[in-house]
Specification:
Number of strands: 0
Distance between the termini: 33 Å
Strand content: under 5%
CATH topology of the largest domain: MetI-like fold
Number of domains: 2
Largest sheet: none
CATH class of the largest domain: Mainly Alpha
Structural class: mainly alpha
Helix content: over 70%
Number of helices: 14
Length: 266
């Protein structure tokens, strides 16, 4: 078998241009984060202190807004798992021709202005939900559709859904068992990606929650920033670190499974 020489054009070799763009991209994301962290710990005389962090951690508004956002995260993730996964799977199995129509529908949350979305929720939802923060959960479930649908669709496109479903149904599995034991394990990466996108949207969405006058974490951070800029930036840095930790946890849960293959034996 011929060996590839180190100087061969077949061997990929990153050039100066590619390395420059990678460095620019790295600095584009890291410099603002570093500047924000520095602003949150530096005081006027040039010294550094964690007073802003301790002040925000002891503020009762942080725990209240964080608890509300946490409940909305679980509700939104539930909508993604219980509604989006079966719906996208059904489209791949039974309604391939309807995929283009559904793709257009999932883009509507990006097209419709947030003010219209908020007013539509207030006029269409039952009265017992209008005074409840869980109204935001349905709003966030709709707002995540452009991202979660495409994440799940990409995962289902990478497997033979029809064969897996027919095999599961042929062995006597119910539709619930097929979804939970056959489809879900094969699109685990897509499901975790959809969950992370949903969590990121809930923890960063401001417009709809402020229009509906609910004090979620982003709304509380904006209100704090009007009187305490260092504190608001400190909370932003802490929320960013939390999202990073969450991404690491999801990556660990989505670790590649080791498959043992026996060759040459029964």
């Amino acid at each position: 078998m011929a060996k590839i020489k180190p100087g061969s054009t077949i061997t990929p070799k990153p050039g100066v241009g590619l390395n420059s763009w990678l460095i620019i991209g790295f600095l584009f994301f890291t410099v603002p984060i570093f500047s924000a962290a520095l602003f949150s710990v530096q005081v006027g005389d040039g010294t550094y202190t964690l007073t802003a962090y301790s002040r925000m951690l002891t503020d009762p508004g942080l725990s209240e807004s964080l608890w509300l956002s946490t409940k909305l995260v679980f509700m939104t993730v539930g909508i993604v798992l219980l509604l989006m996964v079966p719906t996208v799977t059904w489209l791949h199995i039974r309604a391939q021709k309807a995929k283009r129509t559904v793709e257009f529908i999932t883009l509507l949350p990006l097209i419709i202005p947030p003010v219209v979305t908020a007013l539509g929720l207030l006029s269409s939802m039952p009265s017992f939900l209008k005074d409840s923060p869980y109204l935001l959960g349905f709003a966030y479930g709709a707002l995540t559709m452009p991202y979660t649908y495409r994440a799940l669709d990409a995962g289902l496109n990478s497997i033979d859904v029809r064969t897996l479903v027919d095999a599961g149904r042929g062995l006597g599995a119910s539709w619930k068992q097929v979804l939970s034991s056959v489809i879900a394990p094969n699109i685990k990466s897509a499901i975790f990606g959809a969950i992370f996108l949903a969590v990121a949207l809930v923890l960063g969405e401001f417009v709809v929650s402020s229009l509906l006058i609910w004090n979620t974490l982003p709304v509380w951070m904006a209100l704090v920033g009007m009187s305490d800029a260092e504190g608001a930036v400190a909370v932003s840095v802490m929320s960013l670190l939390f999202v990073w930790l969450l991404l690491m946890v999801l990556s660990l849960l989505d670790g590649s499974r080791k498959v043992k293959i026996n060759v040459g034996g029964a």
